């Protein structure tokens, strides 16, 4: 029976025959028992709190988290949450959920027997006529985490295979160029017994350029395969943008490109590694400059986007063919005549290390837009909400 029908029935209870009342009560008891049985058999832990007092808890909750076994199931109802949960970290988190409007879900690792299990705690507020209840769910995500780890290892192996083939291809050209110019030097010595300064300088300049090219290939490769040493600090977006503007303005002007800034007034601080984020944005901007060899317009947009800040880099260049868009972040993929093809791979890696997302939209002959979304810390989001309300 729906809640509305039940309320109407209670309001008119005195008008019902005794047998009808008994039938209604038995029906409600049966429905409550059925719901209780379903929740009790659920592999997901359920806990219902009101002002930190337990109103309902099932067995799965008590077995998935460290709890006092004296208060299993019915014995726990009416007790304070601190009587049931014995792990301090979990207890502090649940108390925080009861006292503050915390949005994030949270993962906890526990030693259960001979293995470590990972539990995910989620929650929601349930509004009723009696007041607000806190509905807390606990789910064992250990197997999901293991599958994700296996998938990452598989993807990493595939990526390493692609990279190995890519770097083998990349180093062949500079090595061949060096070999050719060394052979030319040998032939000159054999023919004349001496090498004049002009020829020697020309040959050595080429060899030096190719050595530098090999060094760039090695540096980019090492960055792509090594874990990124991210140093996250709470940094204002303006600090990132001001340094970026000073750096790119001369190059943009020299290419006859018009620069447009669209920056929202109130932007929160973000947890960022300043050097790496600068590197990622600079790489995308330089790609945009190269795509506009005959000039054009570069538009940089920064704005709030829900729980994220959006960094958008839009150019009016040659664009990227649709069949290449899906491969744009793959190692050693490039449509340029020069370059290692690791630039956007490293940009993708940096953004992911910041728990962000990156996407690209493009149309040949029209231009390309790269969108980077970085998450806003909870404290900054609350301050921003306060500003928006004011």
From TrEMBL:
Which key words tag this protein in UniProt?
ATP-binding, Kinase, Nucleotide-binding, Phosphoprotein, Transferase, Two-component regulatory system
Record keyword Oxidoreductase present: no
List the catalysed reactions.
ATP + protein L-histidine = ADP + protein N-phospho-L-histidine
Query: SMART domains, from UniProt?
Result: HATPase_c, HisKA
GO molecular function (one): phosphorelay sensor kinase activity
Q: What class of enzyme is it?
A: transferase
InterPro entries assigned? HATPase_C_sf, HATPase_dom, His_kinase_dom, HisK_dim/P_dom, HisK_dim/P_sf, PAS, PAS-like_dom_sf, Sig_transdc_His_kin-like_C
What EC number(s) would the UniProt record show? Answer: 2.7.13.3
| CDD domains cross-referenced by the UniProt entry | HisKA
Histidine kinase domain span: 166-378
Name the NCBIfam families for this protein: sensory_box
Q: What is this protein called?
A: histidine kinase
